[in-house]
User: What shape does this take?
Amino acid sequence: MQVPKTDSPTDKKERYSLLIKQIQSIIVDEIPDSGNICNILGLMKSELNLFWVGLYIRYGQKLGLGAFQGLPACTVIQWGRGVCGTAASSGETVIVDDVSEFPGYIACHAETASEIVVPGFKNGEVHFVLDVDSATTSAFDAIDKTYLEQISQILSRFVK
Assistant: This one.
């Protein structure tokens, strides 16, 4: 998220609270799950001023590209590799302030400077990851982690 450094933590929390309300207001049960996922990701990209946001879905010991908003992306990521594979294998959110310093980073876009990846769960196992990229370094923090984990829980309802 490209949040101006002048934003206070309270402002950031308020922005996320509003975003979650907006997400809840655009969910429509009568449409295909993919429509809800795309709308949620589109809203996230625009409201959080993200470079890229998307899902990688687990299949076996790999992650395959799912719905996203942004430029075309890597299509298959090995379990445990890169930021997405690391978050998937650990089951924990990973925040990277500078992707050039992450061992084994998989560069899908040269413009990505920082990243946060949040695992999504089904039946207690990692089923997907929510990958969020920024074109600025150190764009994500504990506040982003808290709220993006909530958004991942919302998305888990629709990811098959």
In short: The two ends are 27 Å apart (CA to CA). The first helix runs from residue 9 to 26.
